[in-house]
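Ticket #4471: structure output looks truncated?

Reporter: J.K.
Steps to reproduce: submitted the chain below (457 residues) through the standard prediction queue, then opened the result file.
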Amino acid sequence: MISENKMASMADDQYVIARLDSFNTWPWSLSLLVIIGIGYFFDLYDVLTLGVAAPYMGPALGVSPVTLSSIGSMVVLIGYVVGALLYAHISDTVGRKTGLLITLLTFSVGSILTAVSTSALEAYIWRFISGLGIGAELSIASAYLSEMAPASVRGRFQSLGTFIGFIGAGIGPLMGYFIIPAFPWGWRLFFVIGGLGAVTAVFFRWWVPESPRWLVHKGRVADAKRIVEGLESRWRALRGALPQLPQLQAEVRRYERIPVVELLTSRKYAYRVLFVLLVYLLYYAFAYPFLGLTASLLHASGMTAIASLYIVGFGGLGYAIGAFLTAVFADKLERKNLIAIGLVLQGIGLLAIGLKISVAEVLGAYFLSALANTFLVTGLYVYMAEVFPAGARSMGGALTDGLGHLAPEISIPVAVAIFASYALFGTFAFLAVLAFVTAAVIVLGMRTTKRVLETLE
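Returned output as attached by the reporter:
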């Protein structure tokens, strides 16, 4: 710890970083965590809308549910890649706050316009627009929360922010179960709810502070110190004396944005990029067929449309529970090992869905898969933000996450082809194998739990 008489001699940039990491809990207002989480909520609500609505939306637009959900998922994934790279550049150069605002605006517009689609082509175009915002939101919000949270509890509170988001993934399919069959235009209302909710969240995000860590590394130390001094005043008013400052374990350096070429070619960063990219490619290769096709494939394998919607609606409650469990265990186990556990559970759940013994059995299997999926991916988003340096925290995450979304462009048609030849079990056995392989790869990654971000650079 740093004694009081040494604080005066500490440079302002070092002071800001040391103060942020001095707390053993979330030092900001909980409303900040909720505001970021609400954006996550509507982002993840939107991720599942097309897959949930497809059994009713497809016939209304003149295409089969499997065609609509598979092509629509592939189109939105292309949007993810483009949006992730475009908006991450803005986040790293202009600011985390600016990035957080434009991502929400973009995918809310796309969601509302999807609701007024009159053809499958229109729906594909508007889903691409939605994808632009969704792909960037996940990486930028992860970068922001990782920079705002103290090192000792970074996993827990970043996971809590993500947990709020995954409530949307859990509630969204359940809302669809009640709304979509109730009216001829129920699927349209389903998309409007997500779009208008995101617009509301933009208003609240306008008031969040910029990341002091980002400001320090951009050389705007006075602005960063002003935000931290406000944090200190709030802490004193609510809790009394400030905690002692920890000994800073790394040099605080100003950065310029690290170009993509340097990320890909430098010995310092290339391994990290390639490793995280491989994990994302493997993860998204099984996750998006699971998220986007399950309802349609269950329907195509003989279940009624309402039964398939019932399974993803009530089974989807596992999404919120899985993210909450990550928040509980995030800083108790090494991050990469926690992710591996989730991947193994995901694989088991996928195999069980493929068995399709009964509606009750598939419901339980889907619940386990949903729980495991958010348990592992919440940890993965925390891990991704930790691995990359400040000058590429958004871009590194967006580059790997965005390119990782290209994997489903292959795995979705492959899953559909396997279904045509080997039915439901063949498809979900293929997805389960991918989950188990991803678990074997992630354990080879670097250790990050409770380590100060600057020491990981």
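Triage note (M.O.): checked the attachment and the full token line is present. Residues 67 and 249 are 54 Å apart (CA to CA).
Status: closed, working as intended.
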